[in-house]
Amino acid sequence: MQLSAAASYEEKKRKKLGKIFGNIGLGILVFLAAVPVIWLIFLSLKTNNEILTDPLALPESIQWVNYLNAFNKIPFFTMVKNTLIVLGISVPVAILFSIFAAFAIGRMKFGTGRIQNAVYSYFICGVIMPTCVLILPIYLLMVKMGLFDTLWSTILTHIGWVAPLNMLIMVAGFRSIPDSLEEAVIIDGCNTWKLLFRIIVPVAKPVISTAIILTFLACWNDFPLARIMLNSPDVRTISLAAAYFKGTFSTNYAMMTSGCVILIIPQLLIFAVFQKYIIDGVTAGAVKG
Amino acid sequence: MSDTHKIYTARKFWTFVAPLLLFYTIFIVYPLIMCFFYSMTGYRGLGTAVWNHFANYKRLFTDRYFWLSLRNSLICAVSLFAFVMPLSFLYAFWLNKQTRRNTVYKIIIFASYVIPGVLCGLLWSFILKPNNGLINSVLRLAGLDALCMDWIGGKGILSPISFSMVCAWSSMGFYMSLWQAGLKSIPGDVLEASALDGCTKSKQIFKIILPMLRDNVVSIMIFILTAALKIYEVVFILTGGGPAHASETIVSYLYVTTFDSMLYGYGMTIAVMEFLFAMLITLLSISLSRRNDD
Predict the structure, then answer these.
(1) N or C, which end of chain A is more exposed by having fewer CB within 10 Å?
(2) More confident of the two residues A201 and B155
(3) Quick check: A223 and B233 CB within 8 A?
(4) ipTM of the predicted structure?
(5) Which residue of A has its CA nearest to B263?
(6) Nearest-angstrom CA–CA distance, B213 and B216
């Protein structure tokens, strides 16, 4: 306190100026992060000709009609439906299986514990796997099973692919639950299922929600797998369909930009609602991994 | 204690791990084994795969495009590092104080992380396009025509740098959060005391914060390397690997060989290389973190 009182007027002024400049600089840096999306929205409100000839100029009149055209031309309903089917099955199933496995590895004490550790290590080996390496054998397998070009091919694969990271996060979380809690319940005569869903799962909620978010994002962001497995237009997911924008609307930028905006804005809104959980979950997952 | 032991048996254990174990084995372990197997054959999708005496591996060493894709992936890694390291740290450092404004800023920066790679690529194509993209348009408006470049689609090293620019944009928030998790672990009085001693901001960063966050620096480096090794969507959207395979990365080259040229055997040889690089990075990270523990 004494120090600040002793600080001269000049120094205070200099500090204040520095702060103002710092704020402006920070504002510009943050603005830069948002520029790509702003630019996309800006372009989407112009005619195709305006985009091609003078992209920087303001539109003569705002072209809301681009959105209408995009809505009519792009099969949004199919894309969203397919994506929701993939997410709606693979995320809950993967999480449920992960809870079972993490419970078995992290909580079931019997023998010397060697079996549990061996299974755990077996799972953890997969954490570093660059999944693009695996796609051809899976493709051949799916063709053999008759699941190629159906949503099942991606749903089933995702359940397997998220296993290592989920185990890494969840087993550690399940292990950190104190034994005393479990013992008390078992003495009361609770069976295994009740113990898992009434006691363990509620206590391990933070870890499980991290796993849910990471599983969701992994399935949501997938393109390399979908590109090979899903071929016909009626099974295309959002990422996959967006990749075809380029071919379909190669010169129609107005359509392409407004289509992108329609796809991106809902995602950003959903993110804005859940941002705290998503940011915390992703960070927690990365720190543990 | 003995009660907990009694209710669990090996049989119960296997029942609970079985579903995930099965999926994991079918979709990660089995394909990896098959990948190694195919890499030693000339399999092209028809008939049976026949052992071909490491011919694929010999071919790899003389394949100009493989080395080109490897070079491009390395350029991606280096430039991603150059974009992400300083900027993500600065964001985290400046937005460390918990205020309403900072929270809003952080959300803006993180938002791009949830946009799928394909859409990121499309979004950035309107910025990087040589003829009417944002960057070159602004440069022309400012009369700096000389600085206009083929950000994508050229033959040189600009395309991979552009790829990593897009990746940096989409993952900036993620790295910022990693730094922030580290910054939280530094006790506040350390920084206060140094500020009272007349320590400047830059001195604080280089003499106190970064040495204290060595573990974070290492883990962020590993994340960047791994991410650069996996760059694919952006290549697919922005250049398609072209012109004439000049901007191919390892993963995009793996795709082209396997699924466009239908060279399953040779494609899987590239996949094995990709897998070995990932292993190498992991071993590197383990040895680095071990050294920190000493």
Answers:
(1) N
(2) A201
(3) yes
(4) 0.86
(5) A136
(6) 5
